[in-house]
Amino acid sequence: MIEEEEPMPHRPMPMDPIAEARRQWIEHGWTDAVPGMTLVTSVNRAQQLLVAPVEATLRPFSLSFARFEVLRLLAFTRDGRLPMKSAVKRLQVHSTSVTSTVDRLVRDGLVMREQHPTDGRATVLAITDAGRELVERATVALNERAFTGLDIDEDDAAELVRLIARMRKRAGDFEDPRPVAEPL
């Protein structure tokens, strides 16, 4: 696995390295894999470009995006509580990852674990006042520094989201692409 490093100052390359990789794939006779390789490589690079400002914005709050997502999910609920099982499902990551993230949030006093009121085997996550205050400040910062001013036309962004949603739906992420999720 390649370790991620701090990005170097941005200097545009004289050619598109993904286009060069595509050319090399074709030259090596891997033509059936060209569309997939190009897509995966392009999306991976786009993900790097989108995540970098998110991580830089969250760093002063001592939050990773995973920690932010858990806090934001809890803050969106009516009473700041959600069963752990529901959090795992909505975050679409392995339960071990959510447990590890929640452990750190609990350690930092941002989330509490409570026993489920009707299921003695289940755990409920509850955001603390400190967690709610932090996630609100972090959300304002993300909205100002990472989620607005993206260098992509609004129509192109919407089309990209639609394309990815179709791919996610086919992969089984969701059944009905309703524009508004049901309240928590």
From TrEMBL:
Keywords: DNA-binding, Transcription, Transcription regulation
Residue stretches spanning the membrane: none
GO molecular function, one term: DNA binding
Top-rank lineage group of the source organism: Bacteria
InterPro entries: HTH_MarR-typ (IPR000835), MarR/SlyA-like (IPR039422), Tscrpt_reg_MarR-type_CS (IPR023187), WH-like_DNA-bd_sf (IPR036388), WH_DNA-bd_sf (IPR036390)
Keyword Transcription regulation: yes
Example GO BP: response to stress
Record's signal peptide: none
Pfam family, one: MarR
HTH marR-type domain mapped to chain residues: 36-169
Protein name: HTH marR-type domain-containing protein
Species of the source: Agrococcus pavilionensis RW1
Classification of source organism: Bacteria, Bacillati, Actinomycetota, Actinomycetes, Micrococcales
